[in-house]
Amino acid sequence: MDPINANDFHKFTQKKFVIGQNVMARKAAQAIMETSEGITEDAFQLCSSIWNITEAGDEIEEKTTA
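RESULT FIELD:
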């Protein structure tokens, strides 16, 4: 499977996190992509973990992904 495009990933995650009333900063999405080395499954696993530790109204920033 090809690595996911960073811009597409940010758009997709932004839509999903809005459902939980959260906002994901572009730098946070970039940090997730760097950490996961563009591997889609790993990126989504990280997003799942972030989803589980955040609450409605949170802004997911780059430091959240560290």
